Amino acid sequence: MAMKILSVCVSQLALLFLLLNLANGQGLKLGFYNKICPQAEQIIQKTIARYVLRAPTLAAPLLRMHFHDCFVRGCDASLLLNSTKGNTAEKDHPSNLSLRGFYIFDAVKEAVEKVCPGVVSCADIVALAARDAVSLIHGPTWDVPTGRRDGRVSKISDILSNSPSPFMNITQLKQMFSAKGLDSKDLAVLSGGHTIGNSHCTGFSYRIYSFTGKGDTDPALDSKYIPKLKAKCKPGDTTTLVEMDPGSFRTFDTHYYSLIQKRRGLFVSDSALLNDPVTNAYITTAVASPATFFKDFAASMVKMGKVGVLTGNAGEIRKVCYKIN
Ligand code: HEM
Ligand SMILES: *[C@@H]1O[C@H](CO)[C@@H](O)[C@H](O)[C@H]1NC(C)=O
Ligand SMILES: *[C@@H]1O[C@H](CO)[C@@H](O)[C@H](O)[C@H]1NC(C)=O
Ligand SMILES: CC(=O)N[C@H]1CO[C@H](CO)[C@@H](O)[C@@H]1O
C-alpha cells in the first residue's frame, strides 16, 4: 500500500516536472547537436555571416524574426511557414510589413541539410541566426541552448493577441511580456533590439500628425524632434523607412536608450519605457554601462528563446523551413 502511494506520488511528480520543463524550455540544452551534427552551429554562422557582412542591415530583420517567432506559438519556426490552400499563415499578417530575409533561412537550411539531413530544426536555426546576426554587427554573443523542434501550425489569427504593437502603453506591454514569462526587466532589455533597424512611418506617424485625432502631437515626444520626423514622413506615407536609432542603426549599441532619455523614442511603446519604475531605471543603467546591457541582452535572449518551445518528440524537424513535412 505504502509502495503504491509512493509510486503514484512519483509518477505525479514526474508529470509535474514534465509540465514545468515544457514551460521553462528545460528540454533544451547547450550543444544539443554536438554528437548528431557537430558542424551545425558553424554552418549556420558561416551562412549568416555571408549575408550580414555583405549587407549589415540584414542583421535587424534576423533579430526581429526570433522575437516574432517566439511570441506566437512559442519559438517553433511557425513564423517561417507559408500560407497554404485554406490556411493563412502568420507570415501574411499585415504586421509582417518589415519582416524580410525569409530566403536567408532557406539558404541556411539547405546548407545544413546537405551535411545532416533531417536533424537540425528551423526553430533552432532562427534562434542561432539571431545570435549570429547580433554578434556580427559588434553586439554581444551568447550560447544558445538548442533542441527545439518545429511546429506544424501557423495561423494569422494568432498574431493579434500575442504580438506587442508599437501603439501599446507600458501596462499593455508588461502584460504581453508576462504572458510569455518575461518580466519588466526583459521588456526593457529586449526593447534594446531597436538599436538597429528601420521602421515604416506607419508605426509612429500619428504621434506627429494626429495623436488624439485632432491634428495634435504626442506630448511624450521631444517637440524639437517632431519637425525632423515630419521631414521624413509625410502624412499617409506607408512606404518610407526611418532609422529607429538614427546615425547608428547598423550598430548594436546603447544609443537607443539615450534616445529614449531624450524623449526621442520612435514608438509609443519605446517612450513607454519611461513610465514604469523598473523599465525607467533600466534605461539609466544601460546608458551608464553598455557592458551591463550586453550581458543582460544575452540573458534575456536566452530566456525569450525558451518560450513555448517544442522538444523531445513534439513537432517535427522540417525538411524545408517554409512548409511542414
Ligand atoms: C516591446 C515590444 C515591441 C514592439 C511594440 C515592437 C515593434 C516594432 C515595430 C513597429 C517595428 C517596425 C516595423 C516596420 O514598420 O517596419 C519594429 C522593428 C524592429 N524590431 Fe521591434 N518591437 C518590439 C520588441 C522587439 C524585440 C523584443 C526585438 C528583438 C529583441 C525587436 C527587434 C526589432 C528590430 C531589429 C526591428 C527592425 C527590423 C528591420 O529593420 O527590418 N523588437 N519593432
Ligand atoms: C514560400 O516561402 C519561401 C520563402 O521562405 C518562398 O521562396 C516561396 O516562394 C514561398 N512560396 C511557395 C509556394 O513555396
Ligand atoms: C493602457 O491602455 C489601456 C487600453 O487602451 C487602457 O485601458 C489603460 O488605462 C492604459 N494604461 C495606462 C497606464 O495608460
Ligand atoms: C514577407 C512576407 O511574407 N510578406 C507578406 C506579408 O503579408 C502580406 C499580406 O498582408 C503579403 O502580401 C506579403 O507577401
UniProtKB/TrEMBL annotation:
Binds 2 calcium ions per subunit. Disulfide bonds join 37-116, 70-75, 122-321, 201-233. GO terms for molecular function: heme binding; lactoperoxidase activity; metal ion binding; peroxidase activity. Heme b binds at residue 194. It comes from the Eukaryota. Residues 27-325 form the Plant heme peroxidase family profile domain. GO terms for biological process: hydrogen peroxide catabolic process; response to oxidative stress; response to stress. The keyword Cytoplasm does not apply. The active site is at residue 68. One of its GO terms (cellular component) is plant-type cell wall. Its cofactor is Ca(2+); heme b. It is found in: Secreted. Keywords: Calcium, Disulfide bond, Glycoprotein, Heme, Hydrogen peroxide, Iron, Metal-binding, Oxidoreductase, Peroxidase, Secreted, Signal. Ca(2+) 2 binds at residues 195, 245, 253. Residues 1-25 form the signal peptide. Substrate binds at residue 164. The record marks 64 as: Transition state stabilizer. Ca(2+) 1 binds at residues 69, 72, 74, 76, 78, 90. Its EC number is 1.11.1.7. It catalyses: 2 a phenolic donor + H2O2 = 2 a phenolic radical donor + 2 H2O. Removal of H(2)O(2), oxidation of toxic reductants, biosynthesis and degradation of lignin, suberization, auxin catabolism, response to environmental stresses such as wounding, pathogen attack and oxidative stress. These functions might be dependent on each isozyme/isoform in each plant tissue. Belongs to the peroxidase family. Classical plant (class III) peroxidase subfamily. Belongs to the peroxidase family. Ascorbate peroxidase subfamily. This is Peroxidase. It comes from Amborella trichopoda.
